[in-house]
Amino acid sequence: MSDGAVMEPILVVLLVTDFLLLGSSRFRTCIKLVSVQGVALGILPALLHGAENSVRAWLLAGGSIVLKGVVFPWLLLRILREAQVRREAQPFVGHSLSILLGVGVLIFSLWVGSTLVLPATAELDTSLLVSAGLATLLIGLFLTISRRTALSQVLGYIVVENGIYTFGVVLVGGVPALVELGVLMDAFVAVFIMSIAAYHISREFEHINVDQLDRLKG
Amino acid sequence: MAVLLTAMGLVALGGLAALAAGRSSRLATILGAGGSVIGCGLGLVPALSVVLGSAPTGWHEAWDLPGGSFHVGLDALSGFFLVPTLLLSLLAAIYGGEYLRPYAERKSLGRAWFWFNLLVVSMVLVLIARNVVLFLVAWETMALSSFFLVTFEHERAEVREAGWTYLVATHLGTAFLLVMFLLLARSAGSFDFDRMAAVVGLAPALASLIFVLALVGFGTKAGFVPFHVWLPEAHPAAPSHVSAVMSGVMIKTGIYGLLRTLTFLGPPPAWWGWVLVTIGLTSGIFGVLFALAQHDLKRLLAYHSVENIGIITLGLGLGLVGVSLHLPALAVLGFAGGLLHVLNHALFKGLLFLGAGSVLHGTGTLDMDHLGGLLKRMPATGATFLVGAAAIAGLPPLNGFVSEFLIYLGAYRTVTSHGALAVLVPAALGIAGLALIGGLAAACFAKAFGIVFLGEPRGERAAKAHEAGWAMKGPLYALAAGCAVVGLCPWPIVQSLGPVLGTLPGQSVASTGSTLLGTGHLLLLATVVAGLVIGLVGGLVLLRGRLLARRPVEETGTWDCGYARPNARMQYTSSSFAQPLTSLFSLFLRTRRRLTPPEGLFPGRSSFATETPDVCREGIYRPAFGAIERVVGRLRVLQQGRVQLYVLYVVLTLLALLIWKMG
User: Are A144 and B662 a contacting pair at CB < 8 A?
Assistant: First the structure.
């Protein structure tokens, strides 16, 4: 199986989940979409570099799948139960407009992917990978900006991390496994802390809308 | 060099051990103060030997920092500043051991000792650093550790405010130093001091720019007017042994930095000297005038630091004028007077701040209007404070006289033998200004000593004052003895300035030696006169004792002014004693008075209070910082407190950078 044949379906999954995230407001759906995205990405490095770097690549894949497919959804669903919110009620940017902007981001990313020259990836056609990674990263940031609740911020953060991970896959030959594991660990700690913070916000304020935190401003 | 570095290692180790000792204040004091005492004592050996003429040494170690290397060196100039630094730190550590004891119940002394020892190490490192990065790291460590010491009693609001003032001032100063060192490094092509000193033919405009930057940057630390505003705030706020170190030696690192920079800049133009003379006169007169108007003993002493830095700068300025106009006598005597005053100020200002600390320790207040009559209750503190007061006023036979005498001598010789206005004006102004400063300082210390130690107690706390213990009295005696030794035998000490003066711009050991030799007979004469004065005073004391031996001696209240029932409130207060002088300079001082006069046939409550806020603080910095705040306040629109908006800023910046990079 060639690299391209493995890569393309996964990238399609990645982008489709991005757009579904932009379009959906129910948290349960969003959490599931993010975990699907994480699992799909987790498989990617193991398949691509299966021949030469088996132990290391599988280690990375295993860690990533467990974290993003099991641990994160579990943490987030727990907040959902505690905070008793079901859907993102009033995003700053509407869902249809979000999708349109997502298309714009995708076009921008394709342009960047076609012009950006990355080192040490001669055997792999990376332009698609770079474009998908950048699009995911920007859409994650967009989710963080455009939604009100702390839960959406956490979801946006995980999507950003997924984008960075996709970049990492491009460079995994050059990046030490320790660094990759470190990034994963960072993401885990960040999500863990953010979920605790969101839990406390919901307990103190009886909602998890981050935009009203500006009442704390001096 | 190895000895000095080991000694500093011991000081640092003592500080860390004190921090680790945590809750046990007793153990922390033993470890922290012990480390400082042993380390400083050990460090004095190489410092003294290099001042007395042994060869400069150095130490070079690579460092993983861009431009940085652990390059330290010990030459006569470093050594000369090291001696008072180590000596005063040693004595202050002994003193602090007892002084801090009352705080042990509510404070962690481990932290206080950690910062104190760090301050000592960083001051020493500033003086021996020979690399820009190392120097700046030590400089900032010095600023931060002293900041934490100033805010030792951070539960008091005025202490916190003093701390912030200090922190802002010192960082602004460092910003100027950063630019200055970058300019120097660019022309030298290296961050090493050796390479900077080796550069010849620096463009005059660039050299002048560097000089001005150094003047502001180092002047902020030294306390040149108008960069002195942090000084009268921070020194009173700090614990007294820290005030002594900060005022006695830490601010001198500014003078050291300025001198070190001058050695990089080649032959100085005359106007640098004029600028220094002007700054010296302004700081001197400004400092002593504001000191006169103060009611808080430590605040008064802090303003005197500004005054003494002024005298030092005046000496150095006259020296620079002498160098640039090729008048070796003026150059040598100006530099010698300024440098000797660095040492002398460390001795007597350390003594006075420690004495003020004893007063605070014994009475619990530093407000002069609540003190009085302490000489009877605290004889050791009173006597040593009197020595310090006489020394700072420049009275013979004490050390303050010697250094001011050298500056006078240089200026007089110039005025009497050279006609050129370029040198006549600064020299004549220097003589007149120094005389004015000396007179006002004498008046100010007559007030400080008279109000605090003479007369009758003005309050309950002064009446119940108790003398300090041996650990606090010992350093006071040692410093008073130091003042007397320098004052009584000035000649060997002035003679030993030769190697130090040789390191300054345009000087060589041989030429300075011969000029200094010319002052020998005058200084020996000073010793003889001092001996005569002491003999005379001693004779009079003996005579008085003999005459009073067989007569009844009656004791009565001091200053009872003939009233039948004298009252402590009838005495002069700190503001009424200084009133003739402060009203003379009222245009300049802008003292605020709040007066409720007694009225009618049966007068009710009446009151009078004066307050003299710093003119520079009120007139320059408050408006300036207010304007900055208003302008910056407009940027508050960007600060909405919404997380989403902040992420948006980050994303927009990243996108703009990406597009810029790609396009």
Answer: no
- Chain A partners of B640 at a C-beta cutoff of 8 Å? 214, 217
Q: Is residue A58 part of a domain?
A: yes
ipTM of the prediction:
0.78
Of residues A112, A115, A145, nearest to B648 (C-beta): A145
Q: What is the pLDDT of residues B142-185, one digit of tens each?
A: 999 999 999 999 999 999 999 999 999 999 999 999 999 999 99
Q: Answer whether residue A119 is part of any domain.
A: no
Return d(Cα B461, Cα B88) in angstroms, integer.
29
Whether A146 has its CB under 8 Å from any CB of chain B: the answer is yes
Contacting residues of A for B660, CB less than 8 Å apart: none
Contact B63, B69 (CB under 8 A): yes
**Shortest CB distance from B644 goes to which of A138, A211, A217?**
A211
Which domain, by its residues, includes A144?
Answer: 3-113+125-216
Q: Number of folded domains in chain A?
A: 1
Tell whether A120 is covered by a domain: no
Which helix or strand (DSSP H or E) is residue B593 part of?
Answer: strand B592-596
Best residue in B638, B643, B649, B654 for a mutation probing chain A (most A CBs within 10 Å): B643
What are the pLDDT digits (tens) for B369-398? 899 889 989 999 999 999 999 999 998 888
**Which residue in B640, B647, B658 is closest to A214 by CB distance?**
B640
Q: How many Å is the Cα radius of gyration of chain A?
A: 18
> Could you tell me the pTM of the whole model?
0.81
* CA separation for the pair B146, B154 (Å, rounded): 13
Q: Quick one: residue B21, left, alpha or beta (phi over 0 = left, psi -120 to 50 = alpha)?
A: alpha
